[in-house]
């Protein structure tokens, strides 16, 4: 027993009043010996170092950079290799070892074309990998490590992890295991298993703070990776909620998803990722806009992973225009159906003067950059043409019936929410609605007012109702409609701006119309008192706690700092998306929280997996914040530790009940 938990006397609680619960608990621990053993086990776990948490946000489809950051644990593995080997290995050897850990299969193929004595390389490499694996596994119980082991090599890895070449009595035994792995031609498979284990143990839990989707070419690949990860949670971002709304059957969300994908040339995500049939839209767009100038709708394909011909670019531009017009119509229909959204200022199609090629906004007329809108009826501008209705119906069926999208959205529902409070960190993607004085703003949802944590909890329930199949909840359709509001509504905590100026950015040259005023949260969140108020609202202490956000790219080129409110707020969206990197100057921030404290890591742009494998080119990362604790954090200092402490108290009561005869042991 640890000195922090002494059984001096039995708990002075009314065991008789709680006998029913204790009887149930006794089914799992039927004897004094079983309960005592579990207490000993839990006490030992409480005194282990806390596991490493990894925070990422605003990935925006950049799957290669995401997968690399995940594999190298934001530089954690490289730092671990440097700690273990120090000056005993050349930098080139350490670089090659790290690359092997990140990409074992690909690196092995390359090594075997270059090494003259592969058996010697195997022996050296296996010994090095064992040392790294021993280090990353040292903070976990044997039971937890064993659960992470690959089935084929479980016993062998257990033996290697718990033996050391420094023990002369076991040296021959250790070396013989390594030698036999090589002579039985299992070295490749074993190396791959060891590298995957190191990656697995380097990070205990992964937090994704929103915006997996849009802009980059591989959101579906990222979702496949995340949904198979060993321990993760997701705080929904506005781009995620847009795709969730599309799956729920919100046609305005579907149109927005289509427009964003076409704008960035991300057809692979639609077609290969989710099986969305683009042919009907392409056919309709080519027929309707064959004579139109589609220059402003040309896709931004420099960031996509696919090369298009000039003819393909023209067709994508026509499709882009077609779905954009459809989007504005569908959004207008939603706004008129829900006056409580207070978004009439976004109904701009009715303000277009086709003859004069202008549009009226807030009493001012602006010339349009293009005005070919053959499907818009000036007497009823938000009515879809018959061809547009057909397209919307087909796309609706594609999205709601996509098997892969179904899997990914249900992953969002099971492992995600609008916020998460864990280990004194409050994570949410964008903002929390505030008044100008910093008080929590009341937001109307279906006739009721909500603010602060109650607002977030209400939205969590609403999203579950909207996205889950089946059920006859009376607010089902209103919940589905509200998914679009969460994407772009002024009081949506996922958006937090006065408007989404899509119409103006596409059709008006005057930049003054493009401005989107940020909500009060973004003007007040550098104030420690405001952050303290938010922490208290969500049940966290003000000392030692943090709010962690993404959403707004940190423009380091302009001197912006991701650390705000005297270190209480960390904004870790630094530009994962290539589309943002021109203005941010970097490729994103990630956060690592281990037993020694916080490390905020700034990343330079990732080149490619091919260069990482061939040249050992890692992402260049710099630690911009080290927030170390005086004493190393243990499991007992975490939320999980508090749960385990509660279990220990319950087991203490069970022991007392056994010894007083209130509950009988089951032999």
Question: Could you explain the architecture of this structure?
Answer:
- By secondary structure, the protein is α/β, with parallel strands linked by helices.
- The strands form 4 sheets. It has a 7-stranded mixed β-sheet with strand order 7-3-2-1-15-16-17.
- The relative contact order is 0.14.
- Residues 1-12 have low confidence and may be disordered.
SSE topology:
Layout: H1 19-28, H2 32-46, E1 53-56, H3 63-72, H4 76-85, H5 91-102, H6 104-114, H7 118-137, H8 142-148, H9 154-161, H10 168-183, H11 187-202, E2 205-208, H12 219-227, E3 232-235, H13 238-248, H14 251-263, H15 267-274, H16 279-288, H17 310-337, E4 352-353, E5 358-361, E6 364-367, H18 386-400, H19 403-415, E7 416-417, E8 419-422, E9 425-428, E10 443-445, E11 448-450, H20 452-467, H21 476-488, H22 502-507, H23 520-524, H24 528-537, E12 546-549, E13 563-564, E14 569-571, H25 578-584, E15 589-594, E16 597-603, H26 609-615, E17 621-628, H27 639-660
Parallel strand pairs: 1-2, 2-3, 3-7, 9-12, 12-14
Antiparallel strand pairs: 1-15, 4-5, 5-6, 8-9, 10-11, 13-14, 15-16, 16-17
Helix pairs in contact: 1-27, 2-27, 4-5, 5-6, 7-11, 13-14, 13-21, 14-17, 16-17, 20-21
Summarize the structure.
With 667 residues, the protein is an alpha/beta fold.
* Cα-based radius of gyration, to the nearest Å: 28 Å
Strand order, largest beta sheet: 7-3-2-1-15-16-17
Q: State the helical fraction.
A: 40-55%
Q: How many β strands by DSSP?
A: 17
Q: Which parts are unreliable, with pLDDT below 50 for 5 consecutive residues or more?
A: 1-12
Roughly what is the average pLDDT, rounded to an integer?
Answer: 89
Overall form: globular
Distance between the termini: 25 Å
Largest sheet: 7 strands, mixed
By secondary-structure content and strand pairing, the structural class works out as: alpha/beta
Q: How many H/I helices? A: 27
**Beta-strand residue percentage:** 5-15%
């Amino acid at each position: 027993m640890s000195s922090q938990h002494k059984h001096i006397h039995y708990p002075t609680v009314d065991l008789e009043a709680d006998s029913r619960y204790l009887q149930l608990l006794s089914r799992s621990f039927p004897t004094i010996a079983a309960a005592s053993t579990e207490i000993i086990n839990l006490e030992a776990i409480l005194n282990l170092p806390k596991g490493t948490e990894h925070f990422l946000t605003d990935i925006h489809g950049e799957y290669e950079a995401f997968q690399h950051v995940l594999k190298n644990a934001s530089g954690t593995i490289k730092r671990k290799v440097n700690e273990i080997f120090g000056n005993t290995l050349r930098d080139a050897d350490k670089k090659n070892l790290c690359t092997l850990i990140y990409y074992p299969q690909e690196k092995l193929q390359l090594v075997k074309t270059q090494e003259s004595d592969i058996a010697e390389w195997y022996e050296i490499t296996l010994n090095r990998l064992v040392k790294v694996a021993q280090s990353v596994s040292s903070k976990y119980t044997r039971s937890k490590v064993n659960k992470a082991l690959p089935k084929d090599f479980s016993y062998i890895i257990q033996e290697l992890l718990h033996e050391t070449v420094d023990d002369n009595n076991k040296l021959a035994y250790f070396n013989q295991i390594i030698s036999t792995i090589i002579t039985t031609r299992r070295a490749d498979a074993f190396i791959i298993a060891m590298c995957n284990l190191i990656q697995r143990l380097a990070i205990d839990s992964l937090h994704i703070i929103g915006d997996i989707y849009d802009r980059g070419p591989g959101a579906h690949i990222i979702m496949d990776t995340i949904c198979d990860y060993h321990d993760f949670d997701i705080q929904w971002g506005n781009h995620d909620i847009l795709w969730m709304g599309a799956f729920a059957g919100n046609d305005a969300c579907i149109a927005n998803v289509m427009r964003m994908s076409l704008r960035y040339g991300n057809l692979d995500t639609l077609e290969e990722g989710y099986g969305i049939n683009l042919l009907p839209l392409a056919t309709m767009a080519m027929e309707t806009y064959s004579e139109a100038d589609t220059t402003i709708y040309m896709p931004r394909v420099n960031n996509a992973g696919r090369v298009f011909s000039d003819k393909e670019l023209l067709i994508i531009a026509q499709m882009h225009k077609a779905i954009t017009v459809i989007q504005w119509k569908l959004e207008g229909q939603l706004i008129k159906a829900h006056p409580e959204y207070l978004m009439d200022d976004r109904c701009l199609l009715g303000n277009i003067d086709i003859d004069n090629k202008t549009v009226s906004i807030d009493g001012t007329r602006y010339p349009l950059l293009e005005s070919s809108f053959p499907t818009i009826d000036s007497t009823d501008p938000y009515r879809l043409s018959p061809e547009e209705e057909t397209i919307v119906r087909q796309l609706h069926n594609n999205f709601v019936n996509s098997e892969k999208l179904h899997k990914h959205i249900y992953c969002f529902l099971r492992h995600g929410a609008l916020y998460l409070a864990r280990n004194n960190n409050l994570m949410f993607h964008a903002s929390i609605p505030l008044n100008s004085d910093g008080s929590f703003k009341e937001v109307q949802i279906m006739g009721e007012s909500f603010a602060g944590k109650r607002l977030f909890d209400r939205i969590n329930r609403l999203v579950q109702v909207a996205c889950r199949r089946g059920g006859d909840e009376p607010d089902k359709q209103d919940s589905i409609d509200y998914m679009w509001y969460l994407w772009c509504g002024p009081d949506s905590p996922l958006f937090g701006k006065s408007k989404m100026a899509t119409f103006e950015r596409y059709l008006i040259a005057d930049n003054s119309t493009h401005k989107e005023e940020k909500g009060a949260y973004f003007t007040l969140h550098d104030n420690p008192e405001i952050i303290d108020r938010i922490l208290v609202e969500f049940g966290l202490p003000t000392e030692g706690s943090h709010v962690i956000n993404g959403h707004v790219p940190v423009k380091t080129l302009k001197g912006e700092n991701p650390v705000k409110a005297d270190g209480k707020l960390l904004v870790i969206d630094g530009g994962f998306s290539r589309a943002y990197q021109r203005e941010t100057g970097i490729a994103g921030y990630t956060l690592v929280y281990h037993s020694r404290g916080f490390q905020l890591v700034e990343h330079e742009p990732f080149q490619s997996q091919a260069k990482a494998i061939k040249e050992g080119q890692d992402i260049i990362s710099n630690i911009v914040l080290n927030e170390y604790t005086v004493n190393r954090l243990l499991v007992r200092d975490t939320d999980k530790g508090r749960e385990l402490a509660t279990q220990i108290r319950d087991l203490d009561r069970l022991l007392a009940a056994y010894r007083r005869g209130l509950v009988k042991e089951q032999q």
